[in-house]
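QUALITY CONTROL LOG
STEP: pairwise intake check
CHECKER ROLE: data steward
CRITERIA: each record must contain a sequence immediately followed by its structure tokens, with no blank fields

ENTRY 1 OF 2
RESULT FIELD BELOW
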Amino acid sequence: MSTLTVVQVGFGVTIQDLGRPGLSDMGLGAAGAADRGSAALANRMVGNAPDAAVLEALLGSVALRSDAHVLAAVTGAPCPVSIERADGRVHGAAAYEVLSLSPGDTVRIGLPEHRLRAYVAVRGGVAVGPVLGSRSWDSLAQLGPAPLRDGDVLPVGDRAGAWPVVDAVPPPRTPWADEPAVLDVLPGPRDDWFTPDWRGVLTGQEYTVSADSDRVGVRTTAAVPLERAVARELPSEGVETGALQVPPTGFPVLFLADHPVTGGYPVVAVLTPESVDRAAQLRPGDPLRFRVVRRRARH
């Protein structure tokens, strides 16, 4: 079996796949890739099965040495990428292109200027042992393959399908630096627990991502808090990925992949799947705005 050796880990790298849904009755959330769209794209670029495990690298900053001929791809945060050959020569590469690694090559992924999480896929997937059916690390439950450390050796599996038919794709155009990210939300289920002007407050101002954000949730601050119309306590109830739970501060917390399965604060709205991916790429200090959208009609 081919392997990848972790030469260097910077801000934190975990193994993620589609997660372990269906275990909420045991108190376990789904976990999985925080930006599912970027993880899926990385797998498609190397011809992997959709459930192949990838690496989720916080702020890039990881180096991996291959012991065999391996195809790889980097998506998500547009990081600088280079390949150091076994003879010491360094070749420029890029995110969003298929990378061909030979035995002894080291791929180095640097710090992106914008966005938060990069995804690294290798053809065949990262074949560490699954825990409860998934290779994902759950930071809240402390479950699954542990975050990577320097010197770890990762087996490369066989979760590949057809060979990729594209060698590069353009990175997504999303405003991050000079204008707020816009996150679409669907109202409810507890929007009636807030004052009638909640939509205007939610959508009429800019929010800032707080420094204590993580894979559990994106915490926000703003000038004007959301006000409750119902003051009594809410019994714990199930919450979904993308839920905007509003604690007593009045500033929403956007639940990401490692969120708890129940919550005791009202959920004013829920992000669309595309906006969950966008939220997963927000850094502390990044600005964002919310936009209420209508529910899509069922056909």
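ENTRY 2 OF 2
RESULT FIELD BELOW
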Amino acid sequence: MSDTATVYRADWLHDGARLHPGAALWLQGGRVAGVLPAGAPLPEGARLQDLGAGGIAPGMVDLQVNGGGGVMLGAGADGPMLARISAAQAQLGALTILPTLITDTPEVTQAVIAATIAACRAGMPGIAGLHLEGPHLDPARHGAHDPGLIRPMTGDDLALYVRAADALPALMITLAPEAASAAQITALARAGVVVSLGHSGCSFEAAQAALAAGARCVTHLYNAMSPLGHRAPGLVGAALDSDVAAGVIADGVHVADAALRVALKASDGLFLVSDSMAVAGTALEEFTLGGRQIFRRGGRLTLADGTLAGADISLPQSVARLVAAGCGLERALAMATSLPAALIDAPGGRLVTGCAADFVHLDDRLTLAGVWRGGVRLAA
């Protein structure tokens, strides 16, 4: 890392919240020294790096990353596994991630928590905490999760999560109101856990009660949950009728474009997630999940019976898809950067004076063209 001031310029710059046409990014010592307005002169002694067409945006923030680089987070979790997932996601533009454990045994859950705590204490790049998606879900809405491992939350589970929340920078837990009591949700929220509702067939009223108890997010909106009905609004209706945050998979497979537009109009709390799996960043055409084969075909990841099993899309691709569906670029980029970062109180997802120089270059088609961590470009 050089201490020489460098200025990166493209057609536009997004600082995590706002789009700045013609602005440039001024770096010094691996951090952001400032955002230069269009037409501003270079700081004395600074080197100019003209990236050409497209724009500069913060390194993206993905709160639902099940795997990457050929591995899934799960049994055997250790530092090298987490580093491999983080490195694969960084190459795809996500420089801040929550590695996500899909429903597993208590033993694997404990091991993954311990490995992630160790990685965070060691300062592993990109790892902002942990997301536990399950096992406290509705078996009727299990999706690709193993229904045999789904179970209600116990007192021992709660104690484990409270301890983990104290040791991790961020802990998100996806649960169904059917599998956790209001008192348990409140205890988790008070411990600093981001409680997210998902994989649930709950009623609108049950979802409202869980939100009142302390849940403040919804996992992959529309998918694996009770749908919006005009007499029974369900979990989707509760999400869209409140100011709760909600992750959404914008791959054109999990959610139709029209449904995306409805959600965008109804909610300011939407943010993008990739729900990526082991194949992310690889050319692999299949992998295993809990002993079951997952197939990669035509932009879909499915079990043999056709059940969706995660997504095959990156956050930059999700931004482009969202813009094509009618979302403005400024909002789409915020949904992949500052909004998810704010939900878990992570320092990433912004380009403001003093923050780490983690950023991406998107070309004029919004295709990822370069990734920098701490001001250093990552090798392709």
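INTAKE CHECK: passed for both entries
DESCRIPTIVE NOTE, ENTRY 2: The radius of gyration is 20 Å.
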